[in-house]
Each structure stands twice: as structure tokens, then as C-alpha cells.
């Protein structure tokens, strides 16, 4: 028992060190001499993207969360599959979802490369797009200074994507444990889940919730069943926050208080458990939600970044890919790992060895 407790404490300490220690090397002014334009380029591009499609903001926000939860915020999620190694995009909860976020990050990276070649990482562009998407006027969410200086992973971790990301059927204990493993508190869980104030979910993600849960509002369940039949139509969409789907506000928490959380995992935050009081606070005090959300986004962005000479700043390849390209799969770039592979050596790069 004591040994198990010690092991649990050790996991929390390591996770906290990952989240806080590494984050200390990041700074909001990281590109102030090397690429000051990155801030206006990203903001302008996000503004355009959200005008064309409001869901763009939700898409990049989710990509940021899913990237940070697997090996830290290192853009590993953006790496494409190669014929021999799967990436993270098709693994676990990433599979079958919208690809809007991936394409948008690639487009913005191309614009940043044109202004500042080989300077700004995909991981930092992702962190900036997530913030700008939330804050853009039409969505009306909070803003915060984004610590920068992350570098990009050279390998994905598809196994981690299948195991580390929470699913829509998770219960409260599982959600709290999953966040604790990344150095995030139950309060971070409650605040960050407010991201579901925007964006959509597929019928496959909420079918059991609206057909089987007993803590769902009957009127809400009946309404959702119209869009989501008991079989088929897995890809039919519904807004995660049906009260104010296009506003970055506290409507999500008010929905939970009315038994109208779309996902089972959403409603777990307000189900006579330890987080009920925070849901009530955020649902009745929009400022409390905004400031906690901003603080927790910084903590999320501080999870295990690569800094200094670790990783790389990803570059476009010959076929015009930007953040999706794997250096060792692109022989045009003479990356050391490519050279090792071409030379017939099988040594595993340090980053990969850590993941194994
Ligand atoms: C707490 C555990 C969480 C679970 C179980 C979860 C699960 C899900 C699921 C199942 C979907 C719908 C996917 C689909 O049906 O295609 C979704 C969408 C989304 N999630 Fe989460 N999520 C969680 C936390 C978060 C966090 C922390 C963030 C960001 C900080 C986030 C941002 C989003 C956004 C913005 C969408 C909508 C994406 C879009 O419309 O394209 N989620 N989430």
C-alpha cells in the first residue's frame, strides 16, 4: 500500500516537473528579434480562417490539446504517416476526426516561413493559433501571453496517442487521473473542459450518452436523437455547447448544470462529484472561467516542450508539406537520422528511445 502511494506521488512529482520545469525555458518574447511578425501573421490568418469557417478555432484548439497530451507540446501530432511508421493522426481519439486544424496549421506555417525562414517551430505556431482562435472577436474568449520557444519533434508517438488521450466515455476518476499524469490539477480539468463551449462532436462520440445515460435532460436527449439515430450516421454532427455554439463563453457550464452535456465525459464534471462547485462557479461567473481557462492553457502549453537544441524547427519539404513532413523520411534534407538510415545503421534516435 505504502509502496503504491509512493509510486503515485513519484508520478505526480515527475509530471509536475515536466509541466513546470520545462515551461520555465519558454518566454513570450522568444521571437521578438528573430521573427516579430509571427504574431501578426498568425492572428491575421486565424481571423481569416474563422471568418470563413467558425469551426477553425475549435479545430486548432483541439489539435493543441491532443498534441500536448502526447509527448508534450512538440507538434508530434502534425507528423504524417509514412509507409513504414504510423503517425498520431490516425490513432486513438484522433482517428476519424476533422482534419481542418491540420491543414490550417500547414497554411499558416507556410506564411510564417515566407517571412522568417527556418525560425518558428510548428509547435509554437500551434500554441499561438489556439490562443488567437479563442480570442477572436466573433468568439469573444479570453487572451493570454503565450510562452514560446518550443522545438518540433522528429518522431510521432502513435501508441501514446492511443493511450494518453481521454475518450468521451471516461468517468470523472479517469479524467482526473489522466490530467494528473500530465501535471494538471482537477481545477485545470474543469477549466480546460470549457473549450467545449465551441466546436462539434460526431454522433459516434455521443450516441451512448443520449440513448443510455440516466443523468441526461430528457428534452435535450430527445433533441439530440433526431440528429443521431441509434445506428448509422456516425458522422452526424452536433454542437458541444448547444446554448451558445459559436461564442467562447460559459454556456458549456450552464448546459452541464441543466443535464445537457453532450458527451458522457462532459457531464461527469457535474454529476454530484468533486467538481460540481467549480462548474457552478464557472457557469455563473464568466470572468472566473475566462481567467482560469487562460491560466490553464499556459499550463497545458508548458507540458514537456523540446527546447534548446532538442528536436528541430520543421521545414517545408520538396512537395510543399510544412508541419506534416518527417525529416528522416525526406531524403532531400540530409537529416542526420536519414543519413544513418541510408548508411544502413539501425540506431534509434534519442527521442524515440525515450518513447519506447
Ligand atoms: C477532459 C477530457 C476531454 C475529452 C474526453 C474530450 C473529448 C472530445 C470529443 C469526443 C470530441 C468530439 C470529437 C468528435 O466526435 O469528432 C471533442 C471535441 C473537441 N474538444 Fe475535447 N475532450 C476533452 C478535453 C478537451 C480539452 C482540454 C480541450 C482544449 C483545451 C478540448 C477541445 C475540444 C474542441 C475545441 C473540440 C471540438 C473540435 C471541432 O469542432 O473540430 N477538449 N473532445
UniProtKB/TrEMBL annotation:
CDD domains listed in its UniProt record: secretory_peroxidase
GO CC annotation: extracellular region
GO molecular-function term, one example from the UniProt record: metal ion binding
Coiled-coil region list: none
EC number: 1.11.1.7
UniProt site positions, description: Transition state stabilizer: 62
Residues given in the record as substrate binding sites: 166
Cofactor or coenzyme needed: Ca(2+); heme b
Compartments, record wording: Secreted
Region (Disordered), start-end ranges: 308-330
UniProt-annotated binding residues for Ca(2+) 2: 197, 241, 244, 249
Disulfide bonds: 35-116, 68-73, 203-228
Cited Pfam families: peroxidase
Signal sequence, renumbered to the chain: 1-24
Catalytic activity: 2 a phenolic donor + H2O2 = 2 a phenolic radical donor + 2 H2O
Principal location class: secreted
Residues at which heme b binds: 196
Alphabetical UniProt keywords: Calcium, Disulfide bond, Glycoprotein, Heme, Hydrogen peroxide, Iron, Metal-binding, Oxidoreductase, Peroxidase, Pyrrolidone carboxylic acid, Secreted, Signal
Domain Plant heme peroxidase family profile: 25-321
Family under the similarity heading: Belongs to the peroxidase family. Ascorbate peroxidase subfamily. Belongs to the peroxidase family. Classical plant (class III) peroxidase subfamily.
Protein's job: Removal of H(2)O(2), oxidation of toxic reductants, biosynthesis and degradation of lignin, suberization, auxin catabolism, response to environmental stresses such as wounding, pathogen attack and oxidative stress.
Protein's UniProt name: Peroxidase
Organism: Zea mays (Maize)
Phylogenetic lineage: Eukaryota, Viridiplantae, Streptophyta, Embryophyta, Tracheophyta
Amino acid at each position: 500500500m505504502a509502496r503504491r502511494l509512493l509510486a503515485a506521488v513519484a508520478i505526480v512529482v515527475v509530471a509536475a516537473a515536466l509541466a513546470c520545469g520545462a515551461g520555465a525555458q519558454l518566454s513570450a518574447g522568444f521571437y521578438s528579434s528573430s521573427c516579430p511578425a509571427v504574431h501578426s501573421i498568425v492572428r491575421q490568418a486565424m481571423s481569416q480562417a474563422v471568418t470563413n469557417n467558425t469551426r477553425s478555432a475549435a479545430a486548432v484548439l483541439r489539435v493543441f490539446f491532443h498534441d500536448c497530451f502526447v509527448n508534450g507540446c512538440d507538434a508530434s501530432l502534425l507528423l504524417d504517416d509514412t509507409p513504414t511508421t504510423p503517425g498520431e493522426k490516425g490513432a486513438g481519439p484522433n482517428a476519424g476526426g476533422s482534419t481542418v486544424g491540420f491543414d490550417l496549421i500547414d497554411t499558416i506555417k507556410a506564411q510564417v516561413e515566407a517571412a522568417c525562414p527556418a525560425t518558428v517551430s510548428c509547435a509554437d505556431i500551434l500554441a499561438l493559433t489556439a490562443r488567437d482562435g479563442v480570442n477572436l472577436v466573433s468568439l469573444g474568449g479570453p487572451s493570454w501571453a503565450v510562452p514560446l520557444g518550443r522545438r518540433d519533434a522528429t518522431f510521432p508517438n502513435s501508441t501514446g496517442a492511443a493511450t494518453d488521450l481521454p475518450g468521451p466515455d471516461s468517468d470523472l476518476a479517469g479524467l482526473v487521473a489522466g490530467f494528473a499524469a500530465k501535471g494538471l490539477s482537477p481545477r485545470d480539468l474543469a477549466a480546460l473542459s470549457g473549450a467545449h463551449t465551441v466546436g462539434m462532436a460526431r454522433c459516434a462520440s455521443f450516441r451512448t450518452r443520449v440513448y443510455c445515460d440516466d443523468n441526461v435532460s430528457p428534452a435535450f436527449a430527445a433533441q439530440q436523437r433526431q440528429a443521431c439515430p441509434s445506428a448509422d450516421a456516425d458522422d452526424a454532427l452536433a454542437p458541444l455547447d448547444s446554448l451558445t455554439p459559436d461564442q467562447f463563453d460559459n454556456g458549456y457550464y450552464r448546459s452541464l448544470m441543466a443535464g445537457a452535456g453532450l458527451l458522457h465525459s462532459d457531464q461527469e464534471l457535474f454529476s454530484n462529484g468533486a467538481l460540481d462547485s467549480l462548474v457552478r462557479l464557472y457557469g455563473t461567473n464568466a470572468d472566473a472561467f475566462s481567467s482560469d481557462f487562460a491560466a490553464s492553457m499556459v499550463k497545458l502549453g508548458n507540458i514537456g516542450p523540446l527546447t534548446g537544441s532538442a528536436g528541430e524547427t520543421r521545414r517545408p519539404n520538396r512537395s510543399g508539406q510544412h508541419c506534416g513532413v518527417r525529416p528522416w523520411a525526406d531524403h532531400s534534407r540530409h537529416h542526420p537520422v536519414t543519413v544513418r538510415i541510408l548508411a544502413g545503421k539501425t540506431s534509434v534516435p534519442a527521442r524515440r528511445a525515450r518513447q519506447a
